[in-house]
Specification:
Length: 353
């Protein structure tokens, strides 16, 4: 892959010839010398440093990160009443279209994908989980990925200091995006197979064969599982079995190395795990294309032949200019609104339909 990766400076030009993605209906916009992303003018807007979409999203992401793992704070500061209150809320919350494991000892909410896979593997059809996920995604698209998911948040924070991003050519990007769909198919197939085997009482051989993969085949490679289940199990063990140095320490070590690798690479390649590997993101994207809230471009303001700032700042590397003005319907859009806040002509609009 190394020779397929070209570097794009936020003030430079994508030099490599790109292949069109099959979902893009418009004519290829010209390659352009891009403009410097818009900066907030403190003279015209002294509060702009804090009152802007980017800052709002960062704050929301950090609060969501703390909230999702809020139980740890309550346990730490020994607040039993608040703990009980929080627990009662948690038991009635639906799952969210993010990546968050069910078993996280300090987690207060689980991801729809994680829950769905668990339910399939126990032989339950996840009506409620899928229904709640559909309602949220059909209204807000993948805003959960852009504003709430803790794994997305960590990748965004790691990327933040790096102004020069590394991006594959569009042909390579298109191929790499398919990987997450294959991961989803394998994980979902195994979960359904295990579920049926358990219902029919013939799961023993399968359980032995799948080992750590039996209840959720994605868990061993799921950064959220590693960070919010595996790691707390070492720091606050509830039994000797959860300590990796007593059981399966090789696996646990590999998983820790993998999660460090995911975030390390995010420094150069924004949201690479979301773009290429995450089966949950792919699943949510299937239903988010025609969400009620989406992105559009104002044709009277947008100048696609002389500007591509929105594409350069998009953490999901979406070719925004190739979509129709009235609807940017990429399943990879996480509604982060970075394109909107950087557009020099204020041409990106939120559409409600
Ligand atoms: S695609 Fe990224 S942000 Fe969305 S669920 Fe997966 S890890 Fe989270
Ligand atoms: S939407 Fe804005 S940033 Fe994107 S091409 Fe049009 S004018 Fe440029
Ligand atoms: S198209 Fe805009 S809102 Fe969607 S992911 Fe890219 S920058 Fe974020």
């Amino acid at each position: 892959m190394a020779e397929d990766v070209d570097r794009i400076d936020e003030t430079g030009t994508d030099e490599e010839e790109s292949e069109p993605e099959d979902e893009m209906p418009e004519d290829e916009p010209k390659k352009v010398e891009i403009k410097e992303p818009r900066r907030i003018s403190l003279r015209s807007n002294p509060l702009g440093l804090i009152l802007n979409i980017r800052m709002l999203r960062r704050v929301f992401q950090i609060l969501a990160f703390i909230g999702i793992n809020g139980y740890i704070l309550l346990a730490w500061f020994r607040m039993p009443n608040v703990q009980a209150f929080w627990l009662s809320i948690w038991q009635n919350l639906p799952t969210l279209p993010i990546l968050a494991p069910l078993e996280a000892p300090f987690g207060v909410i689980a991801g729809s994908f994680d829950t769905m896979i668990r339910e399939f593997s126990t032989g339950i059809f996840p009506f409620f989980t899928i229904g709640a996920m559909l309602i949220i995604v059909v209204i807000f698209g993948r805003a959960g990925c852009g504003w709430i998911c803790p794994i997305g948040t960590i990748q965004d924070l790691v990327t933040l200091p790096k102004r020069t991003k590394t991006r594959p050519t569009h042909g390579t990007e298109t191929e790499l995006r398919k990987v997450k769909a294959y991961v989803f198919v394998v994980v979902a197939f195994l979960a359904v197979w295990v579920g049926f085997s358990r219902l029919s009482g013939t799961a023993e051989t399968l359980e032995n064969a799948l080992g750590a993969f039996v209840n959720d085949a994605f868990a061993p490679l799921n950064p959220a599982y590693i960070l919010f289940v595996l790691l707390p199990d070492q720091l606050w063990p509830t039994s000797l079995d959860t300590l990796w140095y007593f059981s399966q320490w090789e696996w646990a070590l590999l998983q820790m190395i993998f999660v460090i690798f995911v975030f390390f690479i995010s420094f150069w390649i924004p949201r690479w795990f979301c773009r290429w590997l995450c089966p949950a993101g792919w699943f949510y994207g299937v239903f988010s294309r025609d969400a009620l809230i989406g992105i559009a471009r104002n044709p009277a303001r947008c100048t696609p032949d002389t500007c591509n700032v929105c594409e350069v700042v998009c953490p999901m590397n979406i070719r925004i200019r190739k979509f129709p003005y009235k609807h940017m319907y990429s399943p990879d859009c996480i509604m982060c609104l970075d394109c909107k806040s950087h557009c020099p002509n204020n041409a990106i609009i939120l559409k409600f339909s």
